[in-house]
Amino acid sequence: MFLRDLTAKWRFVLAVGVLGLLMTGPFLLTSVLIWLGASPGMREVLVQHLLPQVPLGGMLTASGFLVGLILIRRLFNRYVTGMAAMVEELRLMLGSNRSFRITEEGPPELRELVRAINDLATQRDAYIDDVESQVAKAKANVEEEKNRLAALMSELAQAVVVSNLDGRILLYNNRARYMFESLAKGPTSVSSGALIGLGRSITSILETSQVDYARDTIRIQLERGNRHPVANFVTTTDNGQLIRVQIAPVLRNRLDSQDVQVASGYILLIENITRLLEQEARRDAALGDLTEGSRSSLGTLRAAVEMLADNPDMGTEDRDRFVGVLASEVTRMSQRLDNTLTLLADTLRQHWPLDDMLAADVIEAAGRRVQERLKLPVDVNTSAVEPLWIRADSFSLVSAMAYLASKITEAGDVRSFALKLGSDEKFVHIDLLWTGLSMSSETVLSWEIDPMREDHGVNPPTLREVLDRHAGEIWYQRQRTTSQASIRLLLPKAKPDQDLLAKIDREPSSDRPEYYDFDLFDRPMGQVDLDQPLSNLVYTVFDTETTGLEPANGDEIIQIGALRIVNGRLLHQENFDQLVDPRCQLKAASMAIHGITDSMLLGQPTIDLVLPAFHDFCADTVLVGHNVAFDMRFLELKESSLGLRFDQPVLDTLLLSAVAHPNQQSHSLEAIMQRLGIQMEQRHNALADATATAQVFMRLLPALAEQGIVTLRQALDASQKTYFAQVKY
Amino acid sequence: MTHKILIVDDEPNIVMSLEFLLKKEGFATETAGDGDVALDKVRSFMPDLMLLDVMMPKKSGFEVCEILRADTALKQPRIIMLTAKGRETEQAKGLALGADAYMLKPFSTKDLVAKIREILAA
């Protein structure tokens, strides 16, 4: 028992001791026994004869011992020490480097053992690889499906937001983002009332009481066994827009009972109905005017007509007056009808879903379709002066054009077509032109009422129906001199929601949509918890540009840039990027650093407007910055005058870098970026620097984890220690 | 005895026909183009009956009706409301405010004369 726990060194010492005993022990024992058994005379003889031989015996014993020692040492080195080294290598193979293999050396038995171990490791690696590749495949499938879903959502023309049970946003699509951005009030890019972002609460975009009420409604419906509960509400935003929200739950079976379904999250469909309601109100008013006006005029007309009819002997003067009444009343009725129709033009066609689109896109699609179907060259000319918008169902319009072209080729020999875009004050013209073949207007008229069978399955619409749907008209025209014939399609010009379209156009394409994170489904969020793992927290990484280095002496913030990290992902789109008017002249020295000039700050909001918006933006998140103490001083100086507190935990990438790589000389942002291999073109713009800091921060997290720093509390403690260490130094 | 009728409408075109019609039928007539003038004329002309349009500038027919019926010192004229509004709720309102009859435009002049005679005879 005791022997088993001895270290290799002591066992070696023990072995040497035993060897020594074995070599000298029997000899000494024999000598003692002989000595004890001998008579005194005999002892005399023994001393006389044997004593001179002792040095020889001692020497022989000593050299024997030496040989034994060397032998034991060699055995020890080969088996015990060699094994210890092997164990270390084995550990390496088990842990950090699994492709490592133990070198085969030492005695044959040991080599055999090493071979067996290595074979075992190879077999293990094969299993691990197999499992890993299967896991990766499954993960990729799930990821692909999620991406597909998110891509689908982002293309929807309806605003969609998905939240978890706590009302934290897990997904939102483009349309939702634009809607809430355009609803934002206030001077900054991110103002309160419109903070849409992953992990944020939906109550930051919608009225809390109404959301709660809707959730209760759904819960009650579920409890009553309704399998498709839905709740609706209409809410007014701060800037007077009307928003209709439809909420449906994301259902899952309750754990203890397979039959009972409970909500695990919510899907919100959000629609800005302000325009729709205005349209409805306009339509009602127009219809009211029309009926009342018509009744009134008809009353007048009827009375006048009856006077004329009942009094054939009326004097000329009276007769003229009544005829005058008839004429003026009829004119008024015609005008009223015109006005009403103009007013109703938009609203009367609402029931067929039409989208705002560029006429050029439609005729290019039509050109391709004609080319494919008829195998004839089509010259498409879309060079209009201004972008022409129409409200259209592009599929039916394109098939109408293709239908017309194929009818024309059926009627005679046409070798090529041209499609031309034009416009006048009220209408967009789409001309389908060809040369040679002429036909009668009646023929073209007959095409209008034939069903267009080619693109449509059952119940194909007629050309006339498609035209009516678009409030359009077509006619045939021909220039005798050039034998150029054409069919003109006339469509009303549309006025799209320019802001929205402009925003959608400048949408940056990213490889991975940033609008969703289903991993947040079961994660409680809200107040920052110091004992949460760093990887689970929501961060606001920010940077400021200032007029100088001394906030106490009147230096001011002139730019704030920030982005969010949610669930380990840097969300580029959920950013805060705002210039600030410092109400003082910029110094030339600072201008050289940030490149911001006085003229750029003209008309920008002042800090008392920007800081509250930033405060909202970073609420319930951990603040991160590089040398953040500097930025915090600027923020803190404003706290009391603005009634704000930035009291959340703050992490500094400078300090974290010092914790992670204590032996490095420099912890400037540039140096860290270089060390971690982060490249960045633009610098010294608050948002760009915040982006760089965020990337640095995310690369530092694994390095910190290696040192056992995983929770926020540990990171804060470690930072503080380096800070004090530096101050003492 | 000649009955006196006050025609109140902001549309001169219909006033003209109504005036012509009622004079020919043997009534004495006056006209008014809005609610305020109508109230004045009721006091000066003391009509037996009013043809009162509902939609008028200044005071609507409803208001005129209400003011007249509230003035107990006044010799109350009979009131036929003329309107282009087709809603039944408005007819009910007119009758509740004290109108004797309600005629929806467009109406036949024969029906109007018959209605006037019926109300004056009652």
Précis, in short:
The complex is a heterodimer of chains A (729) and B (122). Chain A is α+β, with helices and mostly antiparallel strands and 729 residues long.
Topology, element by element:
The complex is a heterodimer of chains A (729) and B (122).
Chain A (H helix, E strand, L loop, with lengths): L7 H30 L2 H11 L3 H41 L13 H48 L3 E6 L4 E4 L1 H10 L24 H16 L7 E6 L5 E13 L2 E16 L1 H37 L5 H29 L10 E4 H16 L3 E4 L7 E4 L1 H18 L5 E7 L3 E9 L5 H8 L14 H7 L3 E7 L4 E9 L5 H8 L33 E8 L10 E10 L2 E11 L8 H7 L3 H4 L5 H11 L4 E4 L2 H15 L7 E3 H8 L8 H8 L9 H21 L5 H17 L1
Chain B lengths: L3 E5 L3 H13 L3 E5 L2 H11 L3 E5 L7 H10 L7 E6 L4 H9 L4 E4 L4 H13 L1
Parallel strand pairs in B: 1-2, 1-3, 3-4, 4-5
Helix pairs in contact in B: 2-3
Give the key terms.
heterodimer; A: 5-stranded antiparallel sheet; 5-stranded mixed sheet; about 50% helix; about 15% strand; B: about 120 residues; alpha/beta; 5 helices; globular
Account of the 3D structure:
The complex is a heterodimer of chains A (729) and B (122). Chain A is α+β, with helices and mostly antiparallel strands and 729 residues long. Chain A is built from 21 helices and 17 strands. Chain A has helices at residues 8-37, 40-50, 54-94, 108-155, 174-183, 208-223, 274-310, 316-344, 359-374, 394-411, 441-448, 463-469, 498-505, 588-594, 598-601, 607-617, 628-642, 653-660, 669-676, 686-706, 712-728, and strands at residues 159-164, 169-172, 231-236, 242-254, 257-272, 355-358, 378-381, 389-392, 417-423, 427-435, 473-479, 484-492, 539-546, 557-566, 569-579, 622-625, 650-652. In chain A, the strands form four sheets. Chain A has a five-stranded antiparallel beta sheet. A five-stranded mixed beta sheet of chain A has the order 7-9-10-12-11. A five-stranded mixed beta sheet of chain A has the order 15-14-13-16-17, with helices on both faces. Mean pLDDT of chain A is 82; it is low at 504-512. Chain B has 122 residues and is an alpha/beta fold. Chain B has helices at residues 12-24, 35-45, 61-70, 88-96, 109-121; strands spanning 4-8, 28-32, 49-53, 78-83, 101-104. In chain B, helix 2 runs parallel beside helix 3. The model of chain B has no long low-confidence stretch (mean pLDDT 90).
